[in-house]
Model the fold of this input.
Amino acid sequence: NLLLCFFVLLFASSNLDAEKYEQIAASFTNNFSIFQGGVSAIKNGQLISSGIKQMNNIGDYDDTMGEATKETGDNIDSATDADKKLLEEKKEVSQQMYDELSELSETYRVNDYMEISIDPNFNYVKLSLSGSILFDSGKADIKAEALPLFSKVGDILTAFKDYKIELEGHTDNVPIHNSKFESNNWLSSARALNAATYLIEEKGLSPATLSWTGRGEYDPVASNATEEGRAKNRRVEIKIYNDVGR
Done:
């Protein structure tokens, strides 16, 4: 009886319709005689049927419930605000880098030979040069006639020599296998390495901030089903990372 009364009290302490509660209480009274009989206390305890709360300071529990959740929510909001602020800062810096690169590419008259874009997450600004301009088919040495162009690209990069710069070599999906390169991975890696070596030895970029990698055919920017698409996939990308948040 005491246990049933306890649950009735808990049920009654919630925000219920008074009329419905009276109906429930009447039902218990008629069927179980909780409120009319069996009202006995254990030792000196107070009777639940008298309306006494058996949990001391239950109001304190009611008042403090949800505070931990609120505090966690505030932390989440703060983190979100911080992330938004960081993203805006990265966006601003990336836009400044983009504007500077665009101006330099016009100054050096190489804007017709490369594309400049901003990473959607604003981590870097990217220069993209066609591989056919820099390299002969199936070869990794920079063409002699392309050296003046790449020299100007190197001069532009010296303005960002303190930034992290990454060179990536890319190919189409046409298989290659010759005495020098057994796959497109080897070819793209060799091209990236040769381009990086030129920038280090001829333009003074530091190996500490300059890195290189070959991605082969695995990061296409166009369909390999057409010659035009394959030509776009044969490229060298130069990513200049901003230093926001580092």
User: Anything to note?
Assistant: The chain has eight helices and five strands. The two ends are 66 Å apart (CA to CA). Residues 33-43, 45-55, 64-76 have pLDDT under 50 and may be disordered. The longest strand covers residues 124-130.
